[in-house]
Specification:
Helix content: 25-40%
Shape: globular
Order of helices and strands: HEEEHEEEEHE
Number of domains: 1
Radius of gyration: 19 Å
Strand order of the largest sheet: 1-7-6-5-3-4
Number of helices: 3
Largest sheet: 6 strands, mixed
Structural class: alpha/beta
Distance between the termini: 70 Å
Strand content: 25-35%
Length: 148
């Protein structure tokens, strides 16, 4: 194989691998004491276990989760909105999740897991619980638990 073909093949392989990445972007919550976090139920998320797992992960950070439908209740200072999608590739896997935390109407934290371009990556497989835990751990890492 000529050097030029080798370089061309290396460039193509690199481009393919870059297109097969999984990204995580987290903007942690800073300077907020949250005792209760209201979670807006998203009926478009069709995985039954997602919301209970999200509640459990939030509770593990010393925050009491409360689920609501519709607009945030007036007595909820902090609320969370989420989106999650799954795909099939030999098995179901979480392909995208976004968690957004608000104080009143202001966005104070956000976590995104994106495996939509991770087609050839085996890292896309694995439990949703583990992926959600890594997002919530980083999202709430600087949170100051409030004693109730």
């Amino acid at each position: 194989m000529s050097f030029a073909r080798f370089v061309a093949l290396a460039i193509i392989c690199s481009a393919v691998l870059v297109g097969c990445s999984i990204t995580r972007t987290v903007r942690p919550i800073e300077n907020a004491s949250i005792s209760e976090l209201c979670i807006q139920e998203n009926k478009d998320v069709l995985m039954d276990g997602f919301l209970p797992e999200l509640q459990s992960q939030i509770q593990s950070h010393g925050i009491m989760p409360r689920v609501f439908q519709g607009p945030p209740p007036a007595d909820c200072k902090h609320h969370l909105e989420y989106v999650a999608n799954w795909r099939w590739d030999l098995a179901m896997y979480l392909s995208f999740a976004e968690l957004r935390v608000y104080e009143n109407k202001n966005l104070i934290g956000q976590a995104i897991y994106d495996a939509r371009s991770g087609g050839a990556s085996f890292d896309k497989f694995g439990s949703t619980s583990e992926k959600l835990k890594s997002l919530t751990d980083e999202l709430f890492a600087q949170h100051r638990a409030t004693k109730t």
